[in-house]
Amino acid sequence: MIESFGNDLPEIIAQALNEMKSLQGSDFSLENVNLAELSRRTGYTRARLRRLKANGFRNLPDSRTGRKSETTVLSGFTATLDGFLKQGISNSAVCYSRIREKGYTGSRSTVRDYISKHKDLIPAPRATVAPQGNRGRRYSTGPEECYQMDWGFVKVLCHDGRTYKLACFAMICHHCGFRYVEFFPNAKQENLFIGMIHAFSYMGVPEYVLTDNMKSVVKGRDSEGKPIWNGDYGIFMKAIGFNTKLCKARHPYTKGKVERLIQFVKGNFLAGRTFWNVTDMNEAALSWCDDQNRLCHREAGGIPEAIHTDKYCDHTAALVENDEVRKYLCPLRKVSFDGFVSLEGRRFGVPASHTARFVRVCRDGKVLSIYSEDMVLLVTHEVTWSKHDSYCDGQFQLPQPEEFPTAPVRTVVRQLDDSGERDDAFASFSFMKEELWNE
Length: 439
Known about the structure:
By secondary structure, the protein is of the alpha+beta class. It folds into four domains: 5-54; 78-121; 146-312, Ribonuclease H-like superfamily/Ribonuclease H (Nucleotidyltransferase, domain 5); 330-418, no CATH class. It is built from 14 helices and 13 strands. The protein has helices spanning 5-8, 11-24, 35-42, 46-54, 78-86, 92-101, 108-117, 189-203, 231-240, 256-269, 278-293, 304-312, 323-329, 431-438; strands spanning 146-157, 163-173, 179-184, 208-211, 218-221, 227-229, 243-246, 332-334, 340-343, 346-349, 358-364, 367-371, 377-382. A hairpin with a 5-residue loop joins strand 2 (163-173) and strand 3. The radius of gyration is 39 Å and the shape is elongated.
């Protein structure tokens, strides 16, 4: 056995040379080695073996080793990734999804390698506080019992430098993690009702909803500790057909799933995202929810969409959209003196023929519909998100004043039938009649 063969050569070539040496004995020579036999034993081509023989069967490094290509699959996207890293966004899944929207065709592992080599761009994290408190037990429910809901808020930076807050409504199934997210300009009670109805249409109606002590849900507690529901919310629960349970004050672990969902939305969906308006944001959020619900979750033990469909089809009731439910989707608005109603910071015109002081307004995507209080459609507007007022036909065409008699009408005139041939006063001078007489 020639030990030196195994030092600088690939293992398969060293083994083949040692076998040929053991067969040929003292007649074996590296200078006269049979390349055809060596190729049959190793699978290498004769040309490659010939190059190795010229180097004394030493496996020298390639001349291009260490050189990098001037252009890679990440070329053109590194500036975007650097911007994310400077903002503290180091999640490779988020960065990969954002640059894919801009045309990136590479793999996620390439993005992960780039992030690991440029961690110096990430700002230093804040110092964390050591966890406090004793160990507790996780809150668990059955497949048909409970959803969790909560509000989250995000700051929006406008193109002109202004900032405002956007409210994020989140609801998640406690059993399987099936989720729904929607954004609103504020967290008023009417938007809470709209978000819950949309979530129930997407997920089904559960036995009860778990939430914290928000003002639009509960006013307080009586002497026995029982909740005193907000009047409108109590009517809403009866109309939809579900119950509500409140969490213990200052104990967020009870509804930790929805708390974690809001953190995940801020760290995954909203990270590095730009949008045009709330409609554009909600379309992207619904698509994001569909994608997340189709991914396998280790905690749920499978795909949330499949688990929710299999277990909830027999337990969760479907939302029945009757007139009472549709009124919650169309909140009341007061008509101003100049014939406008306000919704989400914009003003929309109401026809002058509607003289009532209140109307119901509903926005579905890019179409805004204005109804009377008894849900009769008055007019529709195309939502342009412009700061200018949206007028409608007949907004300022007021009905003309009309006088009616104040005393009984006694004068009577007669009206002839105008559908046939007229017989007026000059008919006696007709020459056609004379011709008929002569005949």
